[in-house]
Write a structure and sequence with these properties.
Distance between the termini: 24 Å
Oligomer: single chain
Shape: globular
Number of helices: 6
Structural class: alpha/beta
Number of strands: 15
Strand order of the largest sheet: 4-6-9-8-10-14
Helix content: 10-25%
Order of helices and strands: HEHEEEEEEEEHHEEHEEHEE
Length: 245
């Protein structure tokens, strides 16, 4: 269990005291290669028993009830429910001890809270979800105005490594022309290198969220994290946020 604690990443953001958050890494679990060792995804081919043990380590260490989602690269936001695995890409909670989770391995995890510490949320944003508005949908799950929210962007594919086709760039520009600054030409004529963190900040700013933190880690370059682009057979880590009593 000490290995588990040592492997945790704690977000650096000015959240209210009762808002707690963490990001797991590859360290501190029981899964065998290529899922070694703290794989939390039960849909990637790993042993179900190993995933259950890994998830229990997270649950026991913090004394929380994680609400796991069946993520589909959409924009649906649900109330976090530890008793059911709901199909959605974001969840919110106002109940202490119930943890919103986003599982990723290159996609962008985003953690949310309001300034008075009464609600938290977590979103999973691949480029499709990001372009279709999963972050905005999560913002709208809060009763407060967007300027009363804080967002922390967790480990995702970094701006030197996220190569996309021209159609991805056009999808973003069609609704948010200002996102042009988040793309630079790639090596091939029809390829671009996208900055997923810049895209997220621009989209959040467009709906009035400007208190955005994090965004400095790359899952491809930092081998503490699982990365689907680095190795297609791999696990998933979790970005988790919850309220304390």
């Amino acid at each position: 269990m000490n290995d588990f604690a040592q492997g945790l990443l704690i977000p650096d953001w000015p959240a209210p005291e009762r808002v707690r958050a963490c990001v797991t890494t590859r360290e501190g679990g029981v899964s065998e290669a290529p899922y070694a060792s703290l794989n939390l995804g039960n849909h990637v081919g790993d042993s179900a028993e190993a995933v259950a043990q890994n998830r229990q380590r997270l649950t026991s260490h913090f004394g929380i009830l994680p609400a796991w989602l069946s993520q589909v690269h959409g924009i649906k936001v649900v109330e976090a429910d530890p008793a059911r695995v709901l199909e959605a890409d974001a969840s919110w909670s106002t109940t202490p001890g119930i943890a919103c989770t986003a599982m990723t391995a290159d996609c962008l995890p985003a953690l949310f809270c309001n300034r008075n510490g009464t609600q938290v949320a977590a979103a999973h944003a691949g480029w499709r979800g990001l372009a279709n508005g999963v972050l905005e949908a999560t913002v709208h799950s809060f009763a407060e105005s967007p300027d009363q929210l804080l967002v922390w962007l967790g480990p995702a594919i970094g701006p030197r490594n996220f190569e996309v086709g021209a159609e991805v760039r056009e999808t973003f520009l069609a609704t948010h022309p200002q996102t042009a600054e988040a793309f630079v030409p790639g090596a091939a004529p029809d390829k671009f290198i996208a900055d997923i963190y810049a895209l997220a900040r621009l989209r959040l700013a467009a709906v009035g969220v400007t208190a955005v933190y994090g965004g400095g880690l790359c899952t491809i370059e930092d081998e503490r994290f699982f990365s689907y682009r680095r190795a297609a057979r791999t696990g998933r880590f979790a970005s988790v946020v919850w309220l304390e009593e």
